[in-house]
Amino acid sequence: MNKYKNLLINIAVFTITTVATKLTTFLLVPLYTYYLTAAEYGISDMTTLVIGIIMPLGTFAIGDAVLRFMIDDKQDSREIASIGVAITCLSCLVVLLLLPLLELPMFGGLGEYRWLFLLSYIVYAFQDLFSRIARGANQLRLITVASTASALCTAVCAVLFIAFLGRGLDGFYYSYIAGSLLGSLIFLSVGRHYRYLRLVTWTTAERLLRRMLPYALPLIPNNVLWMFNTSVNRLFITSMLGIAASGIFAASYKIPNLLNMLYSIFFQAWTLSSFQEYRKSNVDRFFSIVFTLLNALLTIVGSLIILLSPWLAYWFLQKDFYQGWVYMPILIFALYFNSLSSFYGSAYTMVMKTRLILISTVASALICLAGTWFFIPYIGLYGAAIAMLFSNITLLLIRIICSQQFIHIAIPKWKTSLTLCVLTIQVFTMTLQIPHYIEISSLCFVFIIAIQIIVTFPLGKEIIQYWKIVR
User: Is pLDDT above 80 for 262?
Assistant: First the structure.
């Protein structure tokens, strides 16, 4: 039962962290959509998108390896973290050399802010690395403190620079840089991560890199293609419909990201728990129970957000951005499949079979690319949302099939199928706004809750009984 207890403790810690960061970012959406134009908001979103794409390339996905090997190899933890710092420094130089590429039309004018972009990349890359080091060193409270302080700093600076000083898009960059910089400084000082700013002997570095790189390198294309799968449509939208359309689509994506925020809380905790439980008995059952409970939570919350989409958009998407709410139901459905795919991906990293992740991610990214390019000329932004949905469904199916060779996750098939049918009805009812769409969506939501209660009730009894036995 310790595995469930540890998972719950990890979830509690990362709930505080994620609520502080993701929710703060979400609450800033009204500020951005009120004071920034659609084009400016599109550039701000393009900044975070491009950073997400180039960071695994520049760092060789070393952060993933640092986390994984610090958990397994406590003796060399300082050297492992120091290697991560060195490679992250090298990535900053690479990004500096590649700055002229931001002038390409597909980036929608991002080249005008190249130096602010570079600073944003540097502070974010180090904050992300230090966060992974803290997770590997089990400094969970430190992550909470640093992430909360970073989020609050970003929010305060955004209000100051954008609302009061009227600095517009520059204000977005200033707040982004200030928040990430503060988070990094807390990790360095309070967490004493300055210990990892040191040179490692070539013999030690070579020995560790021979173990770390085979794990990390397959994750580079996976992480890049994962970003392409979830965000590449913005590049297509920018080149085909303009940066303003990209801004509207990006804003409409923020509310569906509430589902992603919920999953990210779980995933950070789950990553640690799955690594800790690896090689222990009954792992299949552990994965199956957690998957069923996770699926129930995602479907209920996703259905609720779909139902509330018009009202959430009214409060959080200002002015011309409100029109983007019609894309939300499809995007929420797409993120639902994306989250389940990520859960299956954790099984691959648990057993260190990272090369197998590439098969599903490549196929999914290709479908997203082809679908976005094909659908946008005919149905506009709806095409980008539908392409994302199809690609994420493909991603999940391939990962379910490929994972059977090393883990078997039991799925209640007919109940899951029924849930998906109801969700599909709800999504297209809201998207097409057929007569009485709110009433129909409400009935779908109630039906989904009923199904999930039936699915999860036996599991809840099983966990409680096992808890009593262990105690």
Answer: no
